[in-house]
Amino acid sequence: FSAQAAPVLYATGVGTGPGAGLSALYTVNPDTGASILLWNFSGIHIYAGGLAYDASTDSLYATGVEDSSTGTSRLFSISRFTGAVTTVGAVGDNINLSSGGLAINPVTGVMYATGGNGFQSTGLFTIDKTSGIATLIGQSGGQYPQPLVHLNGLGFRSDGVLFANGLYNYAASSLSNLLSVDLVTGVATDIGPHGVTLGRQLAYSGLAFRDDGTLLSLGSLDAASGALYAVDTLTGAATSLSGMGLPYGTGPIHFGVDGGLTFAPATAVPAPATLWLLGSGVLGLIGAARKRMR
User: Fold this and answer.
1) What CA–CA distances, in Å, run from 131 to 88, 116, 224, 231, 238?
2) Reduced to 3 DSSP states, what percent helix, strand and coil does the chain have, rounded to the nearest 5?
3) By Cβ atoms counted within 10 A, which residue in 53, 119, 131, 173 is the most buried?
4) Calpha distance 123→139 (Å, rounded)
5) CA angle at 113 for the pair 267 and 77, rounded to the nearest 5°
6) Residue 108 has pLDDT above 60, yes or no
7) Given its phi and psi angles, is residue 259 left (phi above 0), alpha (psi -120 to 50 degrees) or beta?
């Protein structure tokens, strides 16, 4: 048997290159942060929303808005092989997921998102993958003078623990932090600061776990470029995988550091029906061979 290709790390950001659109989809080297533009998208703003891979449909999902109706957050599905975008549906009234995170629990298959819903702390929602409708679980923090929490990027560990990038007690501190999120209540628990204090920090990027358990995030390297970071899940401390002390503006990320981040298989995953037919065909061949041997 041939070795299985390593999963691919995808990211959303602003459009670049010839014919740059409002948003774009990129691949990112999970060891260095080197990026490649796959598709530019016109008409949709997903450069600051979440990005998630759904194994059951072999699809990427993103949150954002259409250029024609920027006040309505929507769920989109994206083919990573063709760049085709499908609008799944609006998430609901008075819910803003255009700059929030998106992630799918690898244990249950449930999709979660973060965003605003009129409170000082962001909310945690479940998202119906067939309609886009968001259902509130709870707020990540309180109302002032309680600690205010603003969650952005989300990422699930393989055991179903949810982590988030964001701002903890942001009325008192503007530093970005890593947090864990309770799936039952939506309440976030601060793990610790990233330690990156310039630019956008890591506050708005999505999160994704490598196969070796390393938590990855995009973040600012300087005021003109970004990098890929490894984030310690025990302390929140972030370490650049793209190098430090690089000449100004030469970090590998030039499409912003506010978008989503997720891994997906390098090749298309057959639909369950296809696997059933394949299995039936193999069983048929085995049966025919047995009959010939009798």
Assistant:
1) 6, 19, 38, 33, 36
2) 5, 40, 50
3) 53
4) 4
5) 40
6) yes
7) beta
With a cut of 80, say whether residue 277 has pLDDT above it. no
Cα–Cα distance for residue pair 237/195, rounded to 1 Å = 6
Q: How far apart are CA 241 and CA 28, in angstroms?
A: 12
Q: In 3-state terms, what secondary structure has residue 262?
A: strand
SS3 of 47-78: the string is CCCCEEEECCCCEEEEEEEECCEEEEEEEEEE
For residues 159-165, average pLDDT: 98
Residue among 99, 131, 129 nearest 114 (CA): 99
How far is the C-alpha of 96 from the C-alpha of 192, rounded, in Å? 26
State pLDDT tens for residues 242-253: 998 899 999 999
pLDDT band at 276 (very low <50, low <70, confident <90, very high): very low
- Condensed to tens digits (0 to 9), the pLDDT of residues 17-66 reads 888 989 999 999 999 999 999 999 999 999 999 999 999 999 999 999 99
Q: Which one, of 228, 100, 233, lies nearest residue 156 by Cα?
A: 233
Q: What are the pLDDT digits (tens) for 194-209? A: 999 999 999 999 999 9
270 DSSP 8-state letter: P
Q: Residue 284: its pLDDT value, please? A: 52
Kindly report the backbone phi and psi dihedral angles of residue 134, in degrees, each rounded to the nearest multiple of 5, phi listed first.
Answer: -100, 140
Predicted model pTM: 0.91
Q: Which residues, 6+ apart, have CB-to-CB distance to 291 below 8 Å? A: none
Residues 63-82 pLDDT 10s: 999 999 999 999 999 999 99
Task: State the Cα–Cα distance between residues 7 and 201, nearest whole angstrom.
Answer: 26
CA distance 142 to 134: 20
The CA-to-CA distance between both ends of the chain, in Å, stands at 30
